[in-house]
Structure formats: structure tokens, C-alpha cells
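Onboarding guide, step 5: your first structure request.
Type a short instruction followed by the sequence, for example:

Predict the 3D structure of this protein.
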Amino acid sequence: MAKLLVVVGMPGSGKSLYIRKLQPQCPGVCAHDYMAESHGHSPRFTDSRLYNDLVRALREGKSSLIADIEYCDTWRRVEVESVITRDVPGVEIDWHFFENDPAKCEDNVETRNRPNAEEEKRKIRELSRKYQIPREARIIPVWSPSK
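The system replies with C-alpha cells like these:
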């Protein structure tokens, strides 16, 4: 049976680097920002433009990987699990969570020097308050640049 890897972390945590390492293990869908450009800008998991492709890949036995900063929020994780297990019975969901370290994430955002840095830092402050790592999740340290 296929596995769905869900990577969760705030902006600046190192998700993109981590996903690049895991991507070879996931011949199905690999989405760095699963909810980007969802139908009608909906927050519902099934309204992602990638949902049908994800379900098809998992049903075909192709492990897949999705990431989205919104899965820091518990109710969104509950939705992922209930919908995927309904539409792909037997699928294994493997949660990979970056630590909740807002200061380090903000430092990393500053280092990247992107035009949307202030928006990313605002999002970090918002998400860190509701960031709860489930017991069964694999915990990944926030990325640090080499000194």
C-alpha cells in the first residue's frame, strides 16, 4: 500500500530542502505547497487542484508527499486524515513535523532576503501559537545555515 508523507513546518523551517531529500522515495504526487491556488481559494483539503491526482497516485500504490504550512493547525490535520482514509482506504499517513522554533524560522526568513519576508514572519508568529506536534509525528530540527 502507498504511503502519504505530510511535511509540516513554518516558513523558514527548511521544508523545501527536506522535501528535495524525500522526493525520490515518492513516485506519486510531490507538492511543496499543496493548497496553493486551490479551487475558489478554499481551505478544504479536497479543493486542492492536486487532490484528484493525489488520490489516483495513492490508489495506484505510488507513495506521495505533500507539504503546506496550514497543517500546523490541528483541524486541518484531522481533515487530511479523515478525507484520505475515506477516499484511499488502507493508506498509511506519515507526519513529518519541523520543530516549533519561531525565532530560528524568522532568522532563516531574514537570511533568504525574499520580497515577502515580512508576510512570512507574520505567518510564523500566527502559526506558532497553534502549532501542535502530534505524538506519532517524526520531529525534524529547523534548518540552520552552515557557519
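Each response can be followed by summary notes, for example: The chain has a mean pLDDT of 93.
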